[in-house]
Write a structure and sequence with these properties.
2 domains, Lipocalin, eight-stranded antiparallel barrel, mainly beta, about 280 residues
């Protein structure tokens, strides 16, 4: 492989080059959902049934009004993490559509779900990252929906967090605005690299957030679910999804990280980035 030159992005590590060892701090898969059938209904009437086994989920997709997605059903391997009491992060990679991965945040206590589809575009498009995210909320059939549904939030703006993914992989994130965040590699094969990329943040429960980022240099994106309630011991679980070094083969791997809040930036009120809006 070509020696990495931080100023020459063509030499940056491909997604599959990052994978080895990156999952050292990953939480073990839980089988707590095994034997359960969890059926979701979206606001437009789209229904998705999930039947969970120990390590596979059988799902059936029935589109609702205005949903152009074709009906489908399949069985995929999945991973599940219990983020909090009755709150699960579920991750799987479609076999029938290898360019798509599914992230579910299932709140059995509130009867609500946030679903994210990560999609690798067929070809590069001007002004768009190669991997795109689609977000949607749903309720769980048979459980009364309570509280506030998952929603976009500006709560992380201004925070600087140090993340440790393994004994050799560490990064810091600076959350700039609704649209942008900056990352810098502090340790590992990308040490010294930094960039500013698109992000989206959703609140799941108070202090628990889904953070999604989409890289413009490497064709990849990530979904993480992080518990920020203890600022000295933040816990994150997530996935990286994109294309390998050839630019042809989807790469999908999960990971975990421990985080620590380093600082919080407080802007002059009239210059506060939280007021920019997601388009800025």
């Amino acid at each position: 492989m070509t020696t990495m030159n931080p100023a020459d992005t063509s030499t940056w590590l491909p997604l599959d080059g990052l994978a080895p060892g990156f999952d050292a701090n990953k939480e073990p898969h839980t089988t707590a959902l095994s034997g359960r059938e969890i059926n979701l209904t979206a606001p437009n009437g789209t229904r998705i049934a999930h039947v969970f086994g120990d390590d596979e989920v059988t799902w059936t997709y029935t589109p609702g009004e205005g949903d152009e997605t074709a009906p489908a059903s399949d069985t995929d391997a999945y991973e599940a993490i219990e983020v909090d009491d009755d709150l699960f992060y579920v991750q799987f990679h479609h076999r029938y559509l290898p360019n798509e991965a599914v992230s579910l945040v299932i709140d059995l206590a509130a009867g609500r779900v946030l679903a994210v589809i990560s999609e690798i575009l067929p070809a590069p498009e001007q002004g768009r990252t190669r991997v795109q995210h689609r977000f949607g909320t749903a309720t769980i059939d048979g459980i009364e929906a309570t509280g506030v549904e998952p929603h976009p939030t500006t709560a992380l703006i201004g925070r600087r967090v140090e993340w440790v993914y393994s004994p050799v992989h560490a990064y810091e994130h600076v959350y700039l605005s609704e649209r942008w965040y900056t990352w810098q590699c502090l340790a590992g094969p990308e040490r010294g690299l930094a960039d500013t990329d698109e992000n989206s943040v959703w609140e799941i429960r108070p202090g628990i957030y889904l953070f999604a980022w989409r890289e413009k240099v490497i064709p990849c994106a990530s979904i993480t679910v992080a518990d920020h309630r203890d600022i000295d011991k933040i816990r994150s679980h997530g996935v990286l999804f994109g294309l390998d070094e050839t630019g042809e083969i989807p790469t999908h791997f999960t990971f975990g990280a421990w985080g620590r809040l380093i600082s919080v930036t407080h802007h002059t009120p009239e210059l506060e980035p939280a007021s920019f809006g997601a388009g800025a």
